[in-house]
Amino acid sequence: MWQGDINDGFTAIKLINKYVVAVRLNGSLEFFKLDIFSESTLRESIERPKTKLPLRKHVRTGSVGSSLHTLKSTNDTVRCLHIEALKAHNQPVTVLETNGAYIVTGSQDHMLKVFRIEDRQLLYTLHGHYGPITCLFIDQVNPHMAASGSQDGMLCVWDLVTGTCMYSVQSHDGGVLGITCSASYVISIGQDDKICVWDRFHGHQLNSIPISNVYCYDLAMLTHNLLITSKRGSIVIMDVQTGEPVKVFSLGDSDCNVVTQLLTLSDSIVCDYGTELRVVRFPMVATKED
Asked: Quick one: DSSP state of residue 175?
């Protein structure tokens, strides 16, 4: 178990292959390496007879200035090596996203930073917001594009290759709370109880959809124009072109349970419902994509 200063707690964590990337309230960006060993592998390395040639040990040890912590499960041992800590921001980091090549962080200092995963080098500092960064999305269709929102209602779309702002719009009266993208649209949800649909390439507003009884600001695209969102205890599939719901999936009969989080998988979503987790699958979509 890794323990740091309790006054500088983690605000976001991402897993990238065998690496863990985390950001803190003190503005730091930290990298950890996970090594996983089975009991048989550890026993073999301990009981292996000595030879004249030095054998490379499987277990890594911490270098000077680093720390090594061990977590044990029933059959495996996980060792967490603290690799490096970078001072990314001067204020708390509020968002963290990655696409496998880049790491992007956003902070209360109104800035975003782009780091290259390969060598953990800072590539760009992105300026364009005039309030704390509240949400961030890296497109999976075009991994070189990202979109960010801030507390002052500004939406910015970025080119991560050049570090330039493609466009920025005043998207909401209040903070931008969630963003997602499709092949043609950038979609945002804000504190003004609206979902706004923007042209992906030019930033023109195409639709503004009023919403109510929303407790979750996670958005996900099911298809090119179908958006997954939530309303109280239901999952809603919405056509962003018309602004009309196409399908509403009720998760239960209780009016007290609400959806507060959505996690998108390949052909389904996982959401909370009270004290339970619910999985809603969309097999027809996966079949069409295949």
From this structure: -
Residues in CB range of 64: below 8 A, 6 or more apart: none
Question: What is d(CA 165, CA 180) in angstroms, rounded to the nearest whole number?
Answer: 17
Kindly report, residue by residue over 204-255, the tens digit of the pLDDT: 999 999 998 788 999 999 888 999 998 888 899 999 999 999 999 899 887 7
Residue 129 pLDDT > 90: yes
Range of the domain at 114: 1-41+88-210
Query: How many residues comprise the chain?
Result: 290
On whether the CB atoms of residues 41 and 77 are closer than 8 A, the answer is no
Could you tell me if 253 and 240 are in contact, meaning their C-beta atoms sit under 8 angstroms apart? no
56 occurs within a structural domain: no
Residues 6+ apart with CB under 8 A from 262: 216, 218, 219, 220, 228, 229, 230, 235, 269, 270, 271
Whether this prediction's pTM lies above 0.85 is answered by no
Q: What angle do CA 132, 96, 185 make, to 5 degrees?
A: 80
3-state secondary structure of 199: strand
Rounded CA gap, 152 and 131, in Å?
5
The mean of the pLDDT values for the chain is 84
The predicted model gives 9-20 an average pLDDT of 91
Both tokens of 181, joined, read 């993208």
Closest C-alpha among 201, 149, 145, 146 to residue 172: 149
Same domain, 226 and 206: no
282 belongs to a structural domain: yes
